[in-house]
Amino acid sequence: MRPTETVRLDLDAIQGLVLRGYRMPVVDYVFVHFGDAAAARSWTGGVAGHVTTAAPWQSKPDTAVNVAFTAAGLRALNLPEELLRTFSTPFLQGMAARSARLGDSGSSAPENWVGGLGTERVHALVLLSALTPAQLTERAEWLDATLAEAGATVVSRRRAALLPDGVEHFGYFDGLSQPDVEALDDKPLTEQGAMAGRGRWRPVRAGEFVLGYPDEEGVLPAAPARDELARNGSYLVYRRLRQDVAAFRAQLARAAHVYAEDEDLLAAKLVGRWRDGTPLDISPHRRDPALAADPHRNNAFSYEDDPSGYRCPIGAHIRRMNPRASLPFDGKLVNRHRLIRRGMPYGPPLPPGVPDDGVDRGLVFTCLQADIERQFEFVQSEWLNDGNAFGLGDDKDILGDHDGTGKMTVNGVPPFFVHPLTRTVTVSGGEYFFMPGINGLRYL
Ligand code: HEM
Fold first, then answer.
1. Separation CA 182–CA 208 (nearest Å)
2. Cβ of 18 below 6 Å from ligand 1
3. Which residue stretches of 356-401 are H helix?
4. Strand, coil or helix: what is 53?
5. Is the distance from the beta carbon of residue 231 to the nearest atom of ligand 1 less than 6 Å?
């Protein structure tokens, strides 16, 4: 199939978390262990009727339910071994086994993970999203009743909630850039798709995120062998990222002291956006709230006119995570490493000026893709935890796995180095899941 041919997505068979997302204020992540295989299979078939799909809504629902499985979970459902083997290697191995590639060492090592993550006990993840905590509690009670009936147990659960003003714990507005996906809606593009040359954009091919559709190369990505099981499914990456807010603030303040005393500007240089979301590539000298709030302008940049990183540093978080047109091949390379992100903060905010209070807070990072190795793992290992792809040597993202020796380069004449960098983000759990389509849930 040529990349120009249009595709029809089975929106009512694709789980809504994959293509639509909800950005509801509260979410429960419930990790489940199955008992008897037959009871677990009948739970899976039953829950299929409750799962929120990507079909367009007449009005936004109050709650949403989504389900995904680990390789151990598919085995617990008695999926035949020869079929299981057709899933991708990272999924079959699980995230803990991939720790060397992901940089999960020291305090981020799997032996320090919490909530049973990284062990064979986790079979499924149920995501419950709601507009209010009361609605979420009601949904959680419903889920618990269905699990008890199926003889399944809850290994752990994590509640996450949006922070005031839509920021994450380090204080940056989050949830701004998301790839436009082909054939999803008739709505106008928001300049977040694939680069199409000369500053133009087109949607990313659906097969980059959903199994059973052509990808950016125009081919069907490798998927589990059976179409009934694989089609409309996606791989979900779950990472529980603990944020040391006091350490991040102290690191920033120390560096800003020598950076013209401009903490706001340095904070923007680290991420590539001012804290309100204004992109540095468009507005390098000041925040522009109207620009930040406009979905048709706040992603309309490509770094093409800023090859040296004077406006947005080459090593800034968003430029690393999506280098847009600043890598060779006119964006073609970048288009193969896109992620649909569905992150949510957890834990209470640390008030300004308060020293570390020891409370666990951070980001539940989740992303969806068709190929864990080419998408999440590549971005994490080659772009977040290494600088060579960008000519930055062993510089890492400010949010990377630092050991107190690294630096971040803020391009300029002369360049400014933020160093030494300590670890402010620690992985405290993670896993790879398969999120089947409704057809897949019924097949299982
Ligand atoms: C964008 C924060 C970890 C991938 C952003 C933005 C913020 C942010 C503030 C800009 C807002 C937006 O574009 O939506 C964080 C924090 C993290 C974290 C605080 C850890 C605690 C990660 C990780 C990955 C990642 C682990 C992937 C491996 C991305 C991507 C974008 C992004 C792909 C969009 C870039 C673009 O398209 O311009 N992040 N992030 N982030 N982040 Fe992160």
1. 10
2. no
3. 378
4. strand
5. no
